[in-house]
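Entry 14. Ran structure prediction on the chain below.
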Amino acid sequence: MTDHTLATRKSLVPNKPRRPFFLRRGPMEMLAVALIALGFLMLFQPFALVLYTYSFITLLAGTLMFTIVSKFPE
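Output, structure tokens:
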């Protein structure tokens, strides 16, 4: 397709309202990956037992969040 055809097609699609931040796939996937990374950091740090204690819960929450958010529309 040419750029002109794509521009014409885009103009025929009505403007949809933007989804709130917590319903967008991209930002929420990044947040879930950050939670998973935080869980790993908490798991492998040698300083605080409290961080080690909650590392599994953090990893699990990030993994579940990523699984759910990956089903959101683009």
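The chain has a mean pLDDT of 85. Will compare against last week's run tomorrow.
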